[in-house]
Design goal:
Elements (H helix, E strand, L loop, with lengths): L6 E3 L22 E7 L9 E9 L4 E2 L4 E13 L2 E13 L3
Parallel strand pairs: 1-3
Antiparallel strand pairs: 2-6, 3-4, 3-5, 5-6
Length: 97
Amino acid sequence: MPINTKLALYNPFSVKREYEECLPKKLEAGKFYKFKEEGIKIYPLGKKIPLVQIIDSEYGKCLKPLAEISIVEETHYLLAGLTHTKGEYIVHKLYIK
């Protein structure tokens, strides 16, 4: 299974998504945030990767990186017969203001 080289989350004002599937409304360096995605996703724990916003989920298009993060926790689980990944990341550096 391939290792993901970025964490892609939805717009924080997306009405069809759960809170943890979206970017925080305000990102701050040094803070921890939770995430959740459908499917099994493998991330390099502790390695710095970009955090990006999904702009077209049908085609997997993303915006430029918003921040440099590292995944500190990753868990896979079943919910209603579907696999999901959840975890926590820390923001190291913001690329946006």
